[in-house]
From TrEMBL:
It comes from the Bacteria. Keywords: Isoprene biosynthesis, Nucleotidyltransferase, Transferase. The record marks 162, 216 as: Positions MEP for the nucleophilic attack. This is 2-C-methyl-D-erythritol 4-phosphate cytidylyltransferase. Pathway: Isoprenoid biosynthesis; isopentenyl diphosphate biosynthesis via DXP pathway; isopentenyl diphosphate from 1-deoxy-D-xylulose 5-phosphate: step 2/6. Catalyzes the formation of 4-diphosphocytidyl-2-C-methyl-D-erythritol from CTP and 2-C-methyl-D-erythritol 4-phosphate (MEP). It comes from Aquirufa ecclesiirivi. Belongs to the IspD/TarI cytidylyltransferase family. IspD subfamily.
């Protein structure tokens, strides 16, 4: 693969994990005996040794992370990174990460959920390659379930054609100049991911095939699924 542009990855982990209901912030929970965030950072390093990593965390979690980095020295050895303070929403955390990247550099920037540690190296490489070709790339998979949407006129859930549905994942990769422009906007409630922010500029989003294992660890059963999916990797 002939990559030309400099590559950054912003790993957003500025949330508080309310749905996980865990005393330990979910990004620090151990998966195969190592913090989730280590697995996430490592996948990007495995994809591109030269990549620059930016980790976004709430300020009050910096000290816990620094302690984890002492307890697991492989984190810093394998995945040196720049630590940035997060914001009130995912949008604001992405924005903080983007601000940490120098303006003058031409680069491709992936924004990835810290709690998606199972993204495959192949998916990461494929997404950067597509972003280099099309200007942006967002991982997505087809729905395996039937889908219904609430209809306010009929007051009932009506079926949707699932062949027209995509489940959106991360990483979501963009040219830095586009991200800088997009994230100057005011926050809007429908900004549930970075693609929805960039799209407001009138830019078409290019979806690329993701992997079903790339789950977002959101609720307690996701930890069990993640442990099961990584079991062979650790033996
Ligand atoms: N203010 C925020 C909110 C979320 N995130 C990050 O965005 C990713 C996806 O969000 P989600 O799974 O919703 O995480 P939380 O917001 O922590 O969880 P919850 O909504 O259950 O509180 C996570 O890596 C999370 O840390 C972030 O960086 N900053
Ligand atoms: C960015 C994302 O993971 C794409 O599926 C998702 O939108 C994050 O949503 P959350 O409510 O912040 O978990």
């Amino acid at each position: 693969m002939g990559f030309v542009l400099k590559k950054y990855a912003i790993i957003v982990a500025g949330g508080t994990g309310q749905r996980m209901k865990s005393a330990v912030p979910k990004q620090f929970l151990l998966l195969q005996g190592k913090p989730i965030l280590f697995h996430t950072l490592l996948q990007f390093k495995k994809a591109f040794a030269e990549i620059e990593l930016i980790l976004v965390l709430p300020r009050d979690q910096f000290s816990t992370w620094q302690l984890l980095c002492q307890e697991y020295p492989e984190i810093i050895q394998a995945c040196p990174h720049h630590l940035v303070e997060g914001g009130a929403t995912r949008f604001h955390s992405s924005q903080q990460g983007i601000l940490a990247i120098p303006v003058e550099k031409q680069a491709l920037v992936a924004i990835h959920d810290g709690v998606r540690p199972l993204v495959s190296v192949d998916s990461i490489r494929h997404a950067y390659q597509s972003a280099e070709e099309y200007g942006n790339a967002v991982l997505a998979v087809s729905s395996k379930d039937s889908i219904r949407q609430w209809d306010t006129n009929e007051n009932v859930y009506l079926p949707l054609d699932r062949t027209h549905i995509k489940i959106i994942q991360t990483p979501q990769i963009f040219e830095i100049s586009i991200l800088k422009r997009a994230f100057q906007q005011e926050y809007q409630d429908f900004f549930t991911d970075d693609a929805s922010v960039v799209e407001v500029l009138g830019i078409d989003i290019h979806l690329v095939e993701g992997n079903y294992s790339n789950i977002k660890i959101t609720t307690p059963e996701d930890m069990l699924i993640a442990e099961a999916l990584t079991q062979n990797a650790s033996t």
